[in-house]
Amino acid sequence: MNQDNKTSICLKCRYKKFDVNRGLLCNLTNMPPNFENECPDFWDENQYSKNQSDILEVKKGHYRTIYVFAFIIISELLLVGSLLFTKTYSNFFYVGIVGVLLNALNFIGILASKKWAKTLLTTIYSFIILGGIILTIIGTFFINASPNLIIKIIVAVILCSITTYYINFDKTFLKFFNFKK
């Protein structure tokens, strides 16, 4: 893409600014157009009539969601990785890794504002939370399961609960998710 094409895109963007000495600049980076096919910060001012505070709230929700999902995935990897250190549960390691990878793909769908991904994650995590609570009760009071297993189940239930709450009730996430591109 040549500089003229980039300039024509930037002229339509809400973040454009003009500097007498440097020419057309991005108001976010304070630099001339520097992207290959599309600008990640492009905001078509003709298509949207949002004010700057709305834009910043959506971006804040987007970044916060990335941080929350990164925390959840790292925690899940640590939880699944801990299965390698026990003989009894090492068979579940591969199943856990596949689950974390599928979860990461679902997170990508949510970051792309796909409603089906949010519904799928809420449904799966609701079953995991319910099943985890039932397994914890049965394992603790009826079959005397190992404390190691009970702790892992409780941690999984907590992680799923945090994520389910976040994607369904957190205001910054909902502002980001409901924003139409």
Q: Strand portion, in percent?
A: under 5%
**C-alpha termini separation:** 23 Å
Low-confidence parts, pLDDT < 50 over ≥5 residues? Answer: none
Considering DSSP H and I runs of 4 or more, what fraction of the residues is helical? 55-70%
Largest sheet geometry: 2 strands, antiparallel
- Briefly note the structural class of the backbone: mainly alpha
Short description:
The protein is mainly alpha-helical and 181 residues long.
Main features:
181 residues, mainly alpha, two-stranded antiparallel sheet, 6 helices
Please, could you describe this protein's structure?
A two-stranded antiparallel ribbon has the order 1-2. It contains 6 helices and 2 strands, in the order αββααααα. α3 packs antiparallel against α4 (115-141). It has helices at 3-10, 52-81, 92-111, 115-141, 147-169, 171-178; strands at residues 16-19, 23-26. The model has no long low-confidence stretch (mean pLDDT 85). A hairpin with a 3-residue loop joins β1 and β2 (23-26). It has 181 residues and is mostly helical. It has 2 domains: 1-47, no CATH class; 52-178.
List the helices and strands and how they pair.
Elements: H1 3-10, E1 16-19, E2 23-26, H2 52-81, H3 92-111, H4 115-141, H5 147-169, H6 171-178
Antiparallel strand pairs: 1-2
